[in-house]
Specification:
34% of the residues lie in helices and 26% in strands. The chain starts with 11 loop residues before the first strand and ends in a 6-residue tail after the last helix. The longest helix is centred in the middle third of the chain and has 27 residues, at 87-113. It contains 6 helices and 11 strands. A 5-stranded mixed β-sheet has the order 6-5-4-9-10, sandwiched between helices.
């Protein structure tokens, strides 16, 4: 995630997924007809979505009994310390494995039926091995260049947060302080001609 600049000499820009920065001439190019897959995974909950050229065409929310009551800790984290001796632990572990198989089965349908240009992935390091090593294979490699990390904190893998994620990554965001406004305005004026006409606009 791009962070707000700490000094007046920095300008931070997070580009929209619909744009591509060309180093050759320092310009932005609009990406026409782009297909995106969103995968957000939390302990016990996940959401997958397919956006075709900006339109949500398919999505699915997954839930599983993975979190140990009272402790609030997932079964995966518990296995690293105390194992899986109790019956409840075995149930949670089985649901965890099926949880990732179901996610990957849904993702496979996205990739089999459509061209995928970008993959927005949000998954904690603890869950990543279970996701990519599931019995039902993930339809892309961990090193796939189309993958980028979801640049915002997603508190829970719900449909509403998935939509918020898409809106965020579809927008270009600029972090700039007052000292850098003079430097940045001519560049933005090339992209947005009306900006010069309204110099008082809060951008």
């Amino acid at each position: 995630m791009v962070k707000k600049p700490q000094s007046s000499e920095e300008i931070k820009i997070r580009h929209s997924i619909q744009s591509k920065f060309l180093i050759e001439d320092n310009s932005l190019q609009y990406q026409d007809f782009q297909n995106l897959v969103i995968v957000s995974i939390k302990s016990g909950m996940a959401v997958t979505a397919f956006y075709e050229n900006g339109q949500l065409t398919d999505h699915k929310v997954f839930r599983a009994y993975m979190v140990r009551k009272k402790q609030g800790k997932s079964q995966i984290k518990h296995l690293k310390t105390k194992g899986k001796s109790r019956a409840g632990s075995r149930v949670r572990l089985q649901e965890t494995l099926e949880f990732f198989e179901n996610i990957n089965e849904r993702l496979q349908s996205f990739f089999e039926e459509n061209r995928v240009d970008l993959i927005a992935l949000g998954c904690s390091p603890t869950l990543v091995p279970y996701f990519f090593n599931s019995k039902k294979a993930t339809p892309f490699e961990k090193s796939d260049p189309r993958i980028f990390k979801i640049p915002i904190h997603v508190p829970s893998a719900t449909f509403e947060n998935m939509e918020k994620t898409y809106r965020t990554i579809s927008q270009t965001k600029i972090w700039v302080d007052h000292n850098n406004e003079v430097l940045l305005r001519p560049y933005l004026a090339q992209v947005f001609p009306k900006l010069e006409e309204d110099s008082g606009e809060d951008w």
